[in-house]
Amino acid sequence: MAIDTGLGATIAFTDSSFAASFTTLGGTEMTREMLDSSHLGTTDYMTKIVGDLVDPGGFDIEYFFDPAATIAPITAAAETITITFPLGSLTTAAIIAGTGAFTSSGTPELVAGGLMKGSGKIEWTDGFTFTKEV
Amino acid sequence: MIRIEKALRKFWIDDEDIRDKIDGRIFARRVPDHTTNPCVVLTTITTSREYSLANEINVLTAVVQVDVYGANTAEVDEITELIRNRTSGYKGLAGDLFLQGCFILREQSEAKRRRDGSNRFANRNSTDYQIFFSQAIPTHA
Questions:
Q1: Distance of alpha carbon A76 from alpha carbon A123, whole angstroms
Q2: pLDDT at residue B1, rounded to an integer
Q3: Which residue of A has its CA nearest to B100?
Q4: CA proximity to B60, closest of B12, B98, B7
Q5: Residue A113 to residue B130, Cβ atoms within 8 A
């Protein structure tokens, strides 16, 4: 096991081929509901049951904006997106792969004395897979 | 002298108005012995670098302290203003560097009694410039 930084991580978009100097690939937070099953006879604590479906969620990205390049393709169709983690101590890097699409695409804030950064949000259209480093 | 100091020196010496006042007396980090006034001293206070997930990026930020020394306040004020006029808000080539933005962060004036026991004062204006400039991306080779 090796604790590591994010330096060396990559993201690939199969169809749109969107590429940039990414500074942040946000983490995905998957969620699922807890359904309240409490009733008039319940005492002390609420009771809950686990919902059936998981919301695969999405993640934010941020990148150094190049005015000669494209912005995050908000009009692109859902496509295969592969995030490759930095390679640690083994031989094949961990990956996250799934189908997703941009749900937001931000142009950079223009400030004297600040580097331009673009941003975006990607949502998974279905569950994704995480393959650990081996 | 690191690259930004060299670039600023050339940038200002190439300016006829500045050159007429200081005649090339722009130095790195300290005033050499036996130098005549007026003169300018450049000191890089700090640099900061930005990284993408892939590598260091091709823009570097430096804070450069620019000290103008002169015989009297009028002289240092005039040279300080010439430098500000040439540099503040500038974007473009300076020597072999491309400056992507120059911003004044701090300005200070002072007059100190000279150490030679005379009644004369050493006049100094000090200005900190934040400068963004291009650099090569490391190849790690």
A1: 13
A2: 46
A3: A113
A4: B98
A5: yes
pTM of the model: 0.83
Tokens of B70: 């002169």
Q: What is the pLDDT of residues B74-121, one digit of tens each?
A: 999 999 999 999 999 999 999 889 999 999 999 998 887 766 666 666
The answer to whether A27 touches A84, Cβ cutoff 8 Å, is: no
pLDDT higher for A4 or A125? A125
Which residue in B has a C-alpha nearest to residue A111's C-alpha?
B101
Give me the residue from A7, A10, A63 closest to B51, CB to CB: A7
Distance CA(A133)–CA(A88), nearest Å, equals 8
Nearest to B53 among A22, A112, A113 (CB): A22
Helix B73-87 to helix B3-13 angle, to the nearest 10 degrees?
110
- Separation of alpha carbons B119 and A68, rounded Å: 60
Distance of CA B74 to the CA centre of its chain: 19
